[in-house]
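Need LysR family transcriptional regulator's 3D structure for a figure. Predict it.
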Amino acid sequence: MNRKLPSLLAVRYFESVGRHLSFTLAAHELNVTQAAVSHQVKQLEEKIGVSLLTRLHQRVELTPEGEELLKTSIECLDMLAGTFDKITSSKSNRKIVLSVTPLLSAHWLLPRLNRYLADHTSADIVLHNSLKTPTKDTDDFDLKIFYSADQLHDSNYEPLLTDELLPTCNASLTHGVTSLALSEFSKFNLVHEFDHSWWEAWCRLANIDPSLAHRGMVVDDPVVLEKAALVGHGLVLGSASFMREKIESGELITPFGDFPTFKIYYYLYTKPTAREKSISDFREWIISEFQQSAK
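Structure prediction for LysR family transcriptional regulator:
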């Protein structure tokens, strides 16, 4: 069949410009010069005889024809990428790249992963610990488990778990007392994850002056945060789900009980181009395991 089509390279360059509405960002994504992107898009417009972009000062906008072509281009390029992944993975078992938060990786995933690998002996799984939210255009992963302080109403995000954060510490910090009044809060050092915002939010829920959250040590790793609680550095906002065993064993206590708490929400994101059966199987296993652990 003799299809009269413009250059696929030009279509790919236009699709990137159309998504970003920027020649600069498209050039960065494609790892080429801005001039090369501009040249390809201009050639495409000349080839089809239609203006696809309106070039304004320091920005571009899509024309109605450009919007129509962008939608089709995204769909077709995604289909092509998925097909290439499928036919290449049929000859070699492609790695499954899972991006996951460090605490969930240590406490939830790793204890269960051996069961999956025992049943899928040819599976080749790469784990990346990350706290970033999904970014389709830049992240190099197939599946991503992440959390949000807000409930996300997006069909691309599969809800996995609703967790609660509780003030948690080593019992030595309270000299063995396991239940305290909120008025005692100001007597304890705090340990923060990344910044003071989580403790500030908790203080507001507890009707405590948020300025009291501005003290103590800041760490940038949830696993280190848990360790800080275990060795008695101070109060941490600990995960009710992932620190449950240590709380039940008495290694950690929740001196202010389970109120007030605030919730965080875990989601699973699947990259649109990740269509291989091995990825689909692993995705379904993750969802099933979360459902089982919630019972």
